[in-house]
Amino acid sequence: MPDWTYHPLRTIAAATLGLRRSQRVALRGLATLTTLPGGAWLVARMVDRRPPPPDMAGRLGAVVPPEVARDALRALPVLGADVTEIGPVGPDDLPAVRRAVADAASPHRCRVFVRTSETEVASALAPQVDRILTGDVRTGDVGIVDVGTVDVGKVDVDVGDVGAVDVGTGDDPGVRHLADPSIPAAVEALADRTTTVLATPAVLLAAGPGWFQRVMEQATPTTPAPGLRDIPLDPRRWPAWWWGLLVGMGMIGAGLGAAAITLGPVLLWYDRDFLGADRTHLHAINHHLVSFLQHDRITMAGTMVAIGALYAGLAAGGIRKGWPWARNAYLASGLVGFPTLFYFLAFGFVEPLHTAVTVVLFPMFLLATWRRPPEPRWTLLPDGPERLRRRALVGQLLLIVTGFGLFVGGATVSVVGLTTVFVPTDLQFLLTDAHALHGENPRLTPFIAHDRAGFGGALMAAALAITALTLWGWRRGEPWVWWSLACAGAAGFAPAVIVHWLIGYTDLWHLAPVYLGIGMTVGSLVLARPFLCARRNAVGGRACGPGSSSALPSARTSTTSGPLP
Length: 565
Description:
By secondary structure, the protein is α/β, with parallel strands linked by helices.
């Protein structure tokens, strides 16, 4: 999930509402979302939350003040916090803390600690919470404070005691408060299996809501990712990522084939049979009609190549390394893209080549996504210079907005294709109207509608892959992310612009979303390139460029947290 700490949207909110109020508004919004039907699931998917390693389960959390306890207990567990400490709690905070604990959503409830120096508060809250911590947290400059343990049966809770009172299991782990937002600091603290590590509010403000998941990723033991030489000859033993790569290559080949047909005969035999007309007849109906069909189909072909580039990247760069989010992104995109085959039910036109490609690739898609990724095989780099990290965050935000816009655009194109077929600028280019075209050939409108709706479905599939890859894969030293997005952007945008200019369909209003998407994509890639394509110094090779390796040793040190889930 993106780190909104340094994003422009957060800067605007801070200037409008004030820094502290903007932070609370953000937390309140996230907490509210988790209470809606499906909201907690959506937030968990946004941060790609998954179970932590067994030796770290239940030992990572955060410290929050009483005034935000209710929202924190709703939002933080979904983000990955297994423990939430509320404190310091005084007598005046008692009603609010009680309500916060009682209102916490039970399916996502975390362990709750309360820190107080008041015996009255400790006695009142003991039945509702998991532990009572006494004393003050003094982090100073050391970053971590060890908190001892007090057995409630032997020692009285007294003001000034620094300790913990167990109220449940009788387990007696230590508690460490982390003031350093760097990921390695948290991993080092978690190495002691008897310790619960809690991030102070300063850490959460500096590191963003994805901090918990990033800590777990860094702490997860990994093995080297397999290469092409590790693929067995027997197809029955091919790993999931190899099938995913084949689907991506197949989509690229299908897109290039569709482009070749469009630039050549335009219509194949089954097109002519359905229309009862050939290219010459179409030109006689309207001298812009053939060019209009070419512009639709070239745009569709470019989108297919873009999807192929994204699928190949997700398979070879993500699924191969055991990233669960890569498989989820691949699955979500395919579940939108493949069913567009059934758009033919609305038009009565079955395209044999489209059907053949789907029949060949869909079983491979199932093999690529049916099984979850293998054991973790990723490698992580430190987050690097803060200036480059912040630039990458802005690039991440730009591309997420672009992906969302592409999805909305694809949905709109699908709806138009399934209903009115044409937009006003289309008819202005054709110098005619839909009724006139229908009068010339009743099958012409459903033929065009098939192309348009199919393009809308493909655009939605590409948009989901772009958004998910940007949301979850923004990690320093992962050049495959940059190259996948760059190739997809070039394949998707360039043919669309070129064919519009070649046929003279240059209406600014019609092309404005394309130009905006190009600008945001280029800006994002320029800003993020130094971050995503950082060198892996352990090997000394360039991370971005021909021959670069993505399966390199990881660096387990960092000076600051990154924008990643």
